[in-house]
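Q&A log
Question type: sequence-to-structure
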Amino acid sequence: MATVVKGATGTSAQRSSDPAVVDTVADVIADIRTNGDDAVRRYSEKFDRWAPASFRLSDDEVLGIVASVPETVLDDLRFAQNQIRTFAEAQRESMRDVEIETLPGVFLGHRNVPIEAAGAYVPGGRYPLTASAHMTVLTAKVAGVDRVAATTPPSDGGAPPISVAAMHLAGADEIYVLGGVQAVAALALGTETVDPVSILTGPGNAYVAEAKRQLFGEVGIDLFAGPTETLIVADEHADPFTIAVDLLSQAEHGPDSPCVLISTSDRVARDVLNHIEALLPGLQTNAVAGPAWRDHGEVHLVDTIEEAYALADRFASEHVQILTADPRQALGHMRNYGALFLGEGTCVPYGDKVIGTNHVLPTLGAARYTGGLWVGKFLKTLTYQEVRDTASSARIGEICGRLSRLERFEGHARSGDLRAARFGGVPLHWADLPAGSGAS
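Response status: OK
Response body:
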């Protein structure tokens, strides 16, 4: 039985958008759909005070910007991207094309075919999330996407060097300095100077998230994004100070970011609360992390580790950290999470920035039915079928005809009848088989 030691006092994140945001985004998309580049330029100038001759950086401009970034920063970006590439390549290798023979001469198969073009949004503003370039651009390229167009908002009146470097090193084929709804709409719809993409990926503010929601269907998207979520499962062996630090590491994502602790130890739970109160005043991001913990922080006390896993599954949190004596036990007990972080040696910021797994993960309970972004998101699993054996075609045709008529699909039935007649000599009752149309 669970006891609530600290409950959330704020309202939970809404699964529907603010009506004002919905209307604003719809107007921008409609304008860009009609007026293309002119509308994109107007909105960029209005919202970002940014209207260069070209939003797309030339190859020389990209190389010049990358050259301005300190080599130690480039080395760190390369390290992170190598981690992510290695894991993504292993994921891609696990996806095999399939072909089987189900009946004599009946072959069924599927192929994993990359999407032709992907768009990657790399946020700027309060938090320039350069890691998003690794997760979106690089993963798409490993999947085999021919064209990846990456975009990021301007910063300090120009292109943000570290974000541009991250996009370039990740393999972006096109780099745009353009933010907001106008960037997402330009990539999805296409303009006179921007070719459209087939999928949009990457996080953004409420307006970017709403734009992706409204454009979904015309293009694919990675996920519907909500506030960053973290949950820690801890037993009596866990270090309370580590738990406090790790909860606050995710609270700083936003004032509406849920931070949850589920523990089997009353002592650990109480010590965590004390450490958080001591750490928050000195945290540079206290203005964000403080409200997140105050309004959306929760601590639950349970009797057994099995109860802890069951309660954690009900939360279906984006990030779940396991700080127990046997952290790998969670692999057999849990199924609803975006990503698991097992043991004190790892933490959620590793996944956010550098360790190699993708940080674009489900929120708002979506972990109940989906995982996060990975190479498979950029692949279409396409089936095919071939019947080489005429006797098998005749057999399937007869059955297809009968099943189709059960559903009152006479046209479907006749396609099956035709093959049963042509390859198996079964009489056609609705037409005469033309001369020369028999089995060959």
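Response note: The chain has two domains: 3-11+227-358, 36-96+116-221.
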